[in-house]
From TrEMBL:
The lineage of its organism: Bacteria, Pseudomonadati, Pseudomonadota, Gammaproteobacteria, Vibrionales. This is Alpha-1,4 glucan phosphorylase. SUPFAM superfamilies: UDP-Glycosyltransferase/glycogen phosphorylase (SSF53756). The keyword Transferase applies. It comes from Photobacterium lutimaris. GO terms for molecular function: glycogen phosphorylase activity; pyridoxal phosphate binding. GO terms for cellular component: cytoplasm.
Length: 819
């Protein structure tokens, strides 16, 4: 197989003819009149023809080989724009640029026409996208299963500093050029109704679900193109068509009433992505989305399995199903239902197959993010599934009784059913009981899963709880988004590093090479200029690229502590104006973050940062030393400009709260130095780069737990630290909201009267001190360059290729199959 080159045969004339054909036949325009958008769409369609051919060839080969596959089930895939990335994976970037140039079109301009498919909220969805890329790059047989939301994550704008949400019609009016409808893969999904017992032809007592209605699931495939190989895997997204197939007979017999209907009244099941990150809202329509996703996906897995000529008994040998968080947990009782009620396998056999098929990834310890569903809701929407969940729990409780006889406390703790005024189903407990592997997403997080979240589960299922540290794809997050750095890396270590990131360690020996340092920093400067140009053009703010570019981009959440960053900015503002001896290197603080629409404090923090930015950016007394830029509508395509332009990466969550983080890895690869707590994957990044090349501050997990136990008093810090006091008190004034004092006071109130649940005040002093250290070290550009180069060089562990190999070797037992 040709490596590092064009992996697809490319016939320029044929390609141009295909673009022409789509221009005229698909989009009804001509090469004389077509808009840039139509050109982009026609080019996309012509490319999708190539990838669809390879997708079908890959499917056929894997079925013939009876290859073991992983099925990655996720409610979110935050894939970002596909065209540029797929061109790189296909090795066609240059060819297509030339072909389009000959047709009078500039490829860079065409690529800018693509909207981000924002089919995810943040880290969890983006991880799923990196994982699909790494599965394909390494040819581990895989299918990604998700939902074809009509509207992705809302678009964000600011009106007088406040977040305003608008719907995200990511497919436009024309549809997305890369998606291909698979009409032959449609599924019917049942809902509501009741369960009845009956005696079958052999005299065996059986149960069956008599649903009240059904909806149709339609499959759309997006191609996941393997980097530098021919394999293309499907990301299969289910769209719900719920208008037609109401079962009128059931509708009329009164089986199906008011409350049942209400979830669907909200519109089609797959109308919109729920915009919460790390928070469970417990809405009936969301449960319906989850079940719809699982029912379609499990049915499709069984269809593929049987179409390849395999028996149901061999399911767990040939297929494994990875649950991305608890969101697709209902797939477990769904598979059990099919094995029990349709295949009539009997409980023991069905359980053996099912529990050897599923594995589960935990992405959070935050209590508010751990999903529970009311028994009543599940019973109403999915009555047979509720029965099966009870049976799973009943058998598990017997096992608990054997391990801890007559111990009601441990039973109450481990039970899948949480007793109370209304009984709730704990989805995480259901997962741990019903899967063969449970993993956390960074070493620290996985230890805390064992120690704090599931200690007894770790005893009763020894070896089941494990770790796979997250990673990110070096194709999108270095090669595609940072061409300057990529050229430099290739020059020093050869050009096969995007598929073999271990190779970038070869940069280490150039860390002290003055000429290399200069070129490395020149690339950084160009990337900072690219970002500064974007900010100037889109926000009208002028920036100096000699300033330190300090960036915090991630969902807005108290535990991520954007308000700690804000307090330091307020402290700098205060000192610049009040302390004549104080000096600082010019710095631009960038933020990018969406707040869940119902998360009031998160929205208050956005408002406060915007108001502070407005004042600070226009205050001549600051001498241009301090700038604050809140990038609106942060998304993957803006991340691609932001990561390469960073000098400083903000990873400042309260220790123990950020399961891993993945932006931290993208920054470091692109040569930003991290200021971070001992949380999530920061801990492992420090191990890789060494303590001198990362700025660690703040309380450790055990110190956080101890402080909380002893009774944490935020006022103690407020009274003891005059700089902190000055910063907090600024929030009470009208300094940033002239004529309207108190508009920013909610944050101060939360931190003082509200008890400061994430220990912002406790970590403030160390954070400020560490920022001062960064300020001092940046002034020595040689030392800074050395550290930045070492960050790039020592990040190979955090390639998602390594993560996927860990899953394949330690959990899935999966082998690559090349096409
Ligand atoms: C989400 O983005 C994450 C966890 C969740 O439970 C939900 Br819901 C959404 C994130 C974690 O917060 C990050 O720390 C982690 O890096 C990411 O998932 C991928 O594992």
């Amino acid at each position: 197989m040709p490596k590092n080159g064009q992996t697809q045969q490319f016939n320029k004339a044929a390609f141009q003819a295909a673009v022409e054909k789509h221009l005229t036949t698909t989009y009804a325009t001509t090469d004389e009149t077509a808009s840039t958008r139509s050109w982009y769409l026609a080019m996309g369609k012509a490319l999708a023809e190539i990838s669809t051919g390879n997708l079908l060839a890959t499917e056929k080969n894997l079925a013939e080989q009876k290859a073991r596959s992983v099925n990655y089930l996720s409610l979110e895939f935050l894939i970002g724009r596909l065209t540029g990335n797929n061109l790189i994976s296909m090795g066609l970037y240059e060819n297509v640029a030339e072909a389009m140039e000959e047709m009078g079109q500039n490829l860079t301009d065409l690529l800018e026409e693509e909207r981000d498919p924002a089919l995810g909220n943040g880290g969890l969805g983006r991880l799923a996208a990196c994982f699909m890329d790494s599965l394909a790059a390494q040819e581990y047989p895989a299918v990604g299963y998700g939902l074809h939301y009509e509207y992705g994550l809302f678009r964000q704008s600011f009106v007088d500093g406040r977040q305003v949400e608008a719907p995200d019609a990511w497919r436009g009016i024309e549809g997305y050029p890369w998606e291909v409808l698979r009409p032959e893969l449609s599924q019917q999904v049942s809902l509501y109704g009741h369960v009845e017992g009956y005696t079958d032809e052999n005299g065996v007592e059986c149960r069956r679900w008599v649903p009240a209605m059904s909806v149709e699931g339609v499959a759309w495939d997006l191609p996941i193109v393997g980097y530098d190989n021919k394999s293309v895997y499907p990301l299969r997204l289910w769209e719900c068509r719920s208008n037609a197939p109401f079962n009128l007979a059931r509708f009329n017999d009164g089986d199906y009433v008011g409350a049942q209907y209400s979830a669907l009244e909200a519109g089609n099941v797959t109308k919109v992505l729920y915009p919460n990150d790390n928070h469970d809202q417990g809405k009936a329509l969301r449960l319906m989305q989850q079940y719809f996703h699982c029912a379609c996906s499990v049915a499709d897995i069984l269809r593929r399995h049987e179409a390849a000529g395999n028996t149901i008994e061999s399911l767990s040998k040939l297929e494994t199903i990875q649950l991305n968080d608890t969101h697709p947990t209902i797939a477990i009782p769904e598979l059990m239902r099919i094995l029990l009620d349709e295949y009539k396998l009997g409980w023991e056999k069905a359980w053996e197959i099912s529990s050897k098929t599923f594995a589960y990834t935990n992405h959070t310890l935050l209590p508010e993010a751990l999903e529970t569903w009311s028994e009543a809701l599940i019973h109403q929407m999915l009555p047979r599934h509720m029965e099966i969940i009870f049976e799973i729990n009943h058998r598990f409780m017997k096992q608990v009784e054997q391990t801890w006889p007559s111990n009601n406390e441990v039973k109450r703790k481990l039970s899948i059913i949480q007793e109370g005024p209304q009984r709730m189903v704990r989805m995480a407990n259901l997962c741990v009981v019903s899967t063969y592997a449970v993993n956390g997403v960074a070493a620290l997080h996985s230890e805390l899963v064992k120690r704090d979240l599931f200690p007894e589960f770790n005893e009763i299922f020894p070896g089941r709880l494990t770790n796979v540290t997250n990673g990110v794809t070096p194709r999108r997050w270095i090669k595609y988004c940072n061409p300057g750095l990529s050229a430099l890396i290739s020059e020093k270590v050869g050009n096969d590093w995007p598929a073999n990131l271990e190779k970038i360690a070869g940069l280490e020996k150039f860390a002290d090479d003055a000429a290399f340092q200069k070129r490395y920093m020149a690339v950084k400067k160009e990337n900072k200029q690219r970002l500064a140009d974007w900010v100037e053009e889109n926000m009208g703010i002028e920036l100096d690229t000699d300033a330190i570019f300090d960036i915090q981009i991630k969902r807005l959440h108290e535990y991520k502590r954007q308000h700690l960053n804000l307090l330091n900015i307020l402290a700098l503002y205060h000192r610049l104006l009040n302390d004549p001896t104080f000096d600082m290197h010019p710095r631009v603080f960038f933020f990018g973050a969406k707040a869940a629409p119902g998360y009031a404090l998160a929205k208050d923090i956005i408002f406060a940062i915007n108001k502070v930015a407005e004042k600070v950016n226009n205050d001549p007394r600051l001498g241009g030393k301090l700038k604050v830029v809140f990038i609106p509508d942060y998304r993957v395509s803006l991340a691609e400009i932001l990561f390469p332009a960073a000098d400083v990466s903000e990873q400042i969550s309260t220790a123990g709260k950020e399961a891993s983080g993945t932006g931290n890895m993208k920054f470091a690869m692109n040569g930003a130095l991290t200021i971070g707590t001992m949380d999530g994957a920061n801990v492992e990044m420090r191990e890789e780069v060494g303590d001198e090349n990362i700025f660690i501050f703040g309380l450790l997990v055990d110190e956080v737990q101890k402080l909380k136990q002893e009774g944490y008093d935020p006022y103690r810090y407020y009274h003891a630290d005059s700089l902190l006091r000055a910063a907090l008190d600024l929030l009470e004034t009208d300094e940033f909201t002239p004529g309207n004092p108190g508009q920013l006071a909610a944050i101060r109130h939360n931190l003082l009267e509200g008890g400061d649940p994430y220990l912002v005040l406790a970590d403030f002093a160390d954070y400020v001190k560490t920022q001062e250290k960064i300020d001092a070290e940046y002034r020595d550009q040689k030392t800074w360059a050395r550290k930045a180069i070492l960050n790039t060089a020592l990040m190979s562990k955090f390639s998602s290729d390594r993560s996927i190999r860990d899953y394949a070797n330690n959990i899935w037992k999966l082998e690559p199959v090349s096409l």
